[in-house]
Amino acid sequence: MSAIKVGIVSLVVGTIGTVFILVGPSWFPVAASVQADRQDELYLALMIMSSYIFSAVVVFLVYSMIAFRARPGDEDRDGPPIHGNTTLEIVWTVIPTLIVVGFAIAGGWVLIRNENRPADRLTVGVVGQQFEWTFVYKDHGATKVSTVLVLPIDRTTEFDITSKVHDVIHSFYVPEFRVKADAVPGLINKTYATPTKTGHFLLECAELCGIGHSQMRAPVRVVSQEAFAEWLSRLRPVKGGSA
Description:
Mean pLDDT: 90
Strand content: 25-35%
CATH class of the largest domain: Mainly Beta
Largest sheet: 6 strands, mixed
Low-confidence stretches: none
Structural class: alpha+beta
CATH architecture of the largest domain: Sandwich
Shape: elongated
Distance between the termini: 75 Å
Number of helices: 4
Strand order of the largest sheet: 8-5-1-2-3-11
Number of domains: 2
CATH topology of the largest domain: Immunoglobulin-like
């Protein structure tokens, strides 16, 4: 079998793998933010490319194991001398380089878009401590604190994430938003999400932070912008808290 035929077989196998990726069940939770949609699209492209690369490597490997295996009586013989193929080496260097650079550019573009900060964004302070989360809102100069993360749909939220002084490192992660950032004592990390679906989700700590790590969760509710404004107006301000 010629190399061209083996290449065709690998393309067919790669296409079958791509079809399975496209029609098979998703391993991810529902995408509930603009950022999640962008990251899922990038991940899908990576999976499709990986399907073809994996198929090419495995098909050529299996073919080589069969076609060039040692026959009875060949155990003590040296193989024929083989010289390098300059053209082939250039091709298999240039193509992977283009693929890696292309995905690096795509990943950077997604990151830039995900961290876009519109002027009308909502800012929510996120404070982690063993083993709970608290959320700080500013409402007309008043500081309000909640143990439930409530967000308005279709509005970008900036999360200012930190951890209590003398606490440990935690990690803010809502799987449906596909955004994550560490909560570090004395340091504020920022991440952004624009919810696209109303409903109830769950914030999880994604950093092993102690014996109660598995229980360090908080409910997340995405509501209409009108419902959010009403909820925020009913939330009691912290005594002495002001902007």
